[in-house]
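Need tokens for this chain, all 99 residues.
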Amino acid sequence: MNRLNILLSAVLVFCALGLVASQDRARKLFVDLERSQAKAKQLEVQWNQLELEQSRLATSSLIDSKARKGLSMQPAPAQRTLYLVVEPISEQTAMGPQR
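Here are the structure tokens for all 99 residues:
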């Protein structure tokens, strides 16, 4: 009977140590999960700010002012502008020369 008590006590201590270790691991995993979720929220906010900045930078008035000031660009005068007119292709032209 004495050996059985010692064996059961050893199993009990082993199970208790396993329980403590698993609770500690679960606690560490929970802390890592919370940190990851906070980082994901932070990255989401940063992504939204970058999208907002990109849309602001893509406005034509901002591009125009930067081109005029930063690059000293000017609009092309009318006499230097060449307009090309493309006539629609007729069926006879599309089929090639007829014989």
